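User: Hi! I'm working on a homework problem where we have to compare a predicted structure to a textbook description. Could you give me the structure for the chain below?
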Amino acid sequence: MSQKINIRQYRNAIILFFIASVTILFFMPGSGRFKYEFNQGEPWMHEELNAPFDFPVYKSDAELLEEQIRIQKQSLNYFILDSLTVVKQLALLKEKINPDGDSKEFVSLQDLFIFLYNRGIIDASKFPELKDRSIAVVRGNTYEEIPVSEIFTQNSAYEYIQNAILKYYPVDSMNLSQFIAPNLIFDETLTSKIRHKNLEAILPTEGMISEGVRIISYGEQITPEIFKILMSLKKEYEKNLIGGNRFLTVLGRLFLVFGCMGCIFALLMTFRRTMLTENKCIIFIVILLTSFIILALQILKVHPNLIYVIPFTIVPIYISSFFYSRPAIYMYFFMILLIGSFVPASFEFVFINSMAGVTAVIGFKRSYERKELFFTGLLILLVYITGYVSLKLLHEGSLSDFTWYVPLLLLINSLLVIILYQFTFLFERLFGFVSISRLVELSNTNRKLFRELTETAPGTAQHVLQVANIAEAVISDIGGDPLLVRAGAMYHDIGKMKNPAFFVENQPSGNSPHDKISPEESAGIIIEHVTYGVELAHKHHLPNAITDFIKTHHGKSLVYFFYMRYMNEHPDDKDAIRKFTYPGPNPSTKEMVVVMMADSCEAASRSLPHPDETRLNDLVDKIIDRQHSEGLYNDSNITLKEINAAKNIIKNKLKNIYHSRIEYPG
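Assistant: Happy to help. Predicted structure tokens:
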């Protein structure tokens, strides 16, 4: 039903959306956007493009990586020739072999060791990767590049000594290996410093394009070389905003952000206006949207492809879990469009995330078990990868340049969605929301509060289950949240546990305690089941979303039967209506209206002596038309079309409950 807009109700929401928009603007990149969209392997679909200014041609990431790998492979490892090692080993040699003097034979042996240590001895076991390479041997302030094959290892040095001294000493008379030690010491600091210097010397560009040079014409295929030139032009354009007005760029960003956030606000005003009046609700939504937008803008500064690791689909999952699917999808789309305006491959980003977002909402909305959540996460991953591969084939015609790191990022993305979904419990506690999982728990008839209702007021327990079935069928047909309706219907009459015998469904046939008290007392007891139900809901920590069904299932209607009895006895009491009116408020959502309809019709049908099809149809029409004419539905967003659809479903459900049974002989 239509509702007059009071802008003061939405003041806090407007302020929060404004603050969010300004915050997003603050984190936005300062550069402009290149106006052309293009993909390698596709034809150029714009007018002929000439270089608007001189700009360098940047090497691709793959080329830079290849050059870095080549530099690292070609870089020398630096070894210091340790002069102390030879002194120490020669002293030991003299002590062990020639302690008394320098014989001619010892001098020759000493010269051999000096030759070995001057050439250099390396510990080959620590550097097996250097076998076929050269190293830099540092002597003082200079170094010499020497192939490792020309440098002695401990084993080769020992063999060389053994073969060279046969004419001086018997081979078996001594153990010469004890005098051989590595004297080439790896200098990791110097090696890293020079390697880093070589990497820094890599030029990011490979030539220049002069102003006025034709780059590409309409219809011409974008080859890898032209693609590199176009990407270089795009980079320079966005970096320097050449040819544009920076003020107008800022103005464009302002319109973009406020436009997207304004559309989200307008959609909520149209479809879920009540969400804008609840501060905790709008705070949660604004923080959620703003956080992911800012996170995306910051990730884009690191590397564009890292955008695919951000689990954007958790945003509509959170919103649809706590609220409704339709606004969740709308808000998600505008968030993706806003972020997509700054992603290099805008269409690819928006397309893939749009498909994944719809899949996530549909899948998680129906996921009541943990295994289903896992399979939904896998489905999101499948949609992501299918979309990515499809666009790759469309744009390039092959998977020859396919890289696995993007699917790997998408895998991490899907895993993060499953992990982050577990935080719904935290948000329930912080904001007082109710999630799908919580509604599933509340719908369990084995819960303590519902078992108490079954034991204390068994007729009422049967009544609320019938109401839950009817209301769930209605809301599933006209659109809404079936789980919320079922849980709300199951607890809407828990207040009847206080005086169960005063309610018709708990009374033995023809025995009513109302016959012994006044109409005012009867009305007070009937009305009290709403206020007492709210007390029980708070005592048992039921969510506010469920408590609202208790408050609104009668709205501000009259306890009509006892009111008429009282007026027949006191026709002059002008203030009587106040004593016989429920405290309300009236239903504010479609779900609450449906429970009100189902509750009234199911309860009234029990009073029919012979509930045939005609009487049930008349009863439903009479009750719903009266509620509608009394304005009980005016605060909700239910339409006349939905009201008529609800009537038909309630009629069919009641017919099924009271259908004629076949009489068996005997």
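For your comparison, note the following. The chain has three domains: 7-32+244-431, 72-200, 436-657. Residues 41 and 397 are 7 Å apart (CA to CA). Good luck with the assignment!
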